[in-house]
Each structure stands twice: as structure tokens, then as C-alpha cells.
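hey so u asked for the seq, here:
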Amino acid sequence: AITREAGLLDPQPFDISLPTHSTLTAETEFHFGPAVLALLTNERLLDGVESIIGPEITSNPVQHVRIKPPERLLRKNAPGLVTRTSWHQDNGVVDKSADDTNMLTVWIPLTEATERNGCLTVVPGSYRNGLHVHCPLTSTGKSVIHIPAEIVQRGQVKPLPMDPGDVLFMHRLCMHGSLSNHSDAVRWSLDVRYNPTGQTTGREVLPSFIARSRTNPDSELHDANTWRKMWMDARDHLLTNHIPATKSRWDGNHELCA
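ran it, C-alpha cells below
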């Protein structure tokens, strides 16, 4: 009803991260409850992660809840967390320091994700081509980091419909985005990330934690209050020192960004 009347939806109170722009305040809301931590440390989920990146697993702080209302109800300048996601690679939205980090994206639908309501789209095998240039602004001036349309192999794009309970593991260089929601219902999803412990997260100003350690199980974090305090302390640190939660590595000067 709020989206229908106002044409917007603020996703931040539901999100599991801090805003990466100037809207961060001491009153900024976020959602770091025990259920989210339980998901991040779920044994079956971590078994899958371990099979790909190994047994020493850090929960990377690049993580979001995405609430996608019907596109027709939104204003044109609605934030990216509630609209179609532009083409990008996750490696392209973290610091250069993480270029060698074996970061793994885990995409989890909380409701059915279909082509009609805005499922994920990928270019299979695109990770083999390395990191592509990303542009910081769209043609309309909206601040959205994205891969220029000229680079995306449109003929190879594959939509990925998924059901609740499905999980997608994705390489950090996989080119992906999502479709617009043309249905009458809200589509919810989570995207979280992990990397081998000891490798940089690419967002060092935000808190990471050890989700699994076969060599030192006592180092694992399982206390939700501690986890929430880590994020509250990070928010205070960013505000006190006037530090942005993230800085774009792309300046927009590439010819494809013109």
C-alpha cells in the first residue's frame, strides 16, 4: 500500500548492510537479527560454500536483502535494491584490493523468482573473460555501477527462475543482473558472500566474521548480539570519521561510459 500510494519503498530498514552513500546517519535502520546470522552460518549452506572455497570461511560484509515491488508502482528514480538490477560483476563493486580474493556470491530467493517478477539473469561462462569496465552512472545520470550495454553478450543471456529453497552459487566475475518485476506481487531475495579466511573482503570498513573454521572452531561467530554490535560500531566509526562505506573504483572516464 505504501509503494502504491507514494511510488517508493525504502529498503534500508530490511537490509543487512549499511548504505554506501551520504544517507547514513546515527538513526539509520538495518536488520541484523539472530535469524539472519543463523542463515549465514547454516551448516548445509556452509557445506556448499566449503565445497567451493575450502573449509576456512569468512562471511563477507557485501550482503543485501532485495525487495522488488511491481515496477509499475515505483518512481523512475527508485533505489537499485527495489528495481531491476543492472549488469555487473560482483568483483567490480568491491575495492581493487579484493581482486585476488576468491569471493563467492550466494543468491537465495525468499519468494518464487520468475521471468515475470524479476528473476536473476546471467551470461554463462562470462567469468572466463576477466573483469570488465563498469560505469558509475547511467545515461539518465542515475548513480548505478553497471557494465556498458556494448559489452553484454545479449545472445547468451540466460534467465534463472528459482523457487524458495533454491540456492545459486556464483563466481565473482560472473556477469549478471535481474529483470524488472512486471507481476502484481513483491519478489524478495537475499544475496550474501563468503571468502576464504585471511583474504581481504573488499569492504574492510564493514565487519566480516568467521562463519566456519575446521582448524579453529572456537573462532566462529554464533552470538547474534555480538554480530549486531559489530555493525553498530562500524556505523559509528563511519560517521565519526566521515568515511563512506564504499568508494567506487570506477571514474566513468572510459569511452564506453561516455
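The longest helix spans residues 224-240. The chain has four helices and ten strands.
lmk if thats what u needed
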